[in-house]
Structure prediction request, 344 residues.
Amino acid sequence: MKAIVKEKPGIGFTIKEVPVPEELAANEVLVKVKRASICGTDLHIYEWNNWAQQKIRPPQVAGHEFTGEVIKVGPGVTRVSVGDIVVAETHIPCQKCLQCRTGRMHICKDMEILGVDRDGVFASYVRVPEVVLWKVPEGISPEFASIMEPFGNAVHTALVTDLTGKNVLITGAGPIGVMAAAIAKSAGAAKVIVTELKAFRKQLAKKMGADIVLDPREVNVEKEVKRLTDGNGVDFFMEMSGNLNAFKDGLKCTTNGGEVSLLGVFPGEIDIDINSLVIFKGLTLYGITGRRMFETWQIATELLKNKRVDLTPVVTHVLKMEDWEKGIESMLKGEAGKVVLEIE
Prediction:
């Protein structure tokens, strides 16, 4: 089968023939991949940054966001059947630790990640454990299904609290940030403000329902947000950028007693005045990783199936698998939302 592989240390991927993983252990499933989307994590692996050098052990099939059809099931599989259209939670839980045993598999202490700790999904077929599979109902397109994993990140980040009638700030208009804007509007937010530097992403945020998009280079974000909220600041702040200045701006913009949801990953330790920005303001902070299994997936499914959120603007590129380099280039230039690869 064809696969996009991190063949050796250094910049780049290679498309090559690799064996089909046909041998299934108990509770494993073989899925024929139909669509797969490129993630920021894949860019890190492609560029071979410090994180990738520590985590990835080439040769390894890349990718973790996908949808496909079940074509074979191993012994003991009961939740899916041959012919089912599925997506997968990419965080594979051990099912043994305290977190897994108490309904928090998304923060498993010993999890593996598709395309990071084991072969990924940029291939004709992928072998995955049954526990991570989620059936896709009719009415959700393959392109939308292939990005349900990052959409789930946005759902998890946005819906940690009731947004009805609340003013919301999102720092960072990458794909997950703009999906979070659409989710916030669907959930009843009064006003959604987004901050972003890149022109392409500013436009994407507007298409996905942001009421106001601010460029921190052009305005004082704190003053402008306070002006837009009658001097109060926002009730809810979602940090999606992993940028320290954006994080500080967001905390300054959050009203006393407000809530903060953190998904953006910072490059290392950060320095903030936690006393004045968090403690004395009485803020509640939520650290977000992955998606709740499977509460988040159920919400994401219903939002898409019932057309409460339209992801059409986010899927900016649909390419043949062989054209993966075009997708990587567009993402590196900041001129893409989600890039979906047609694997079949």
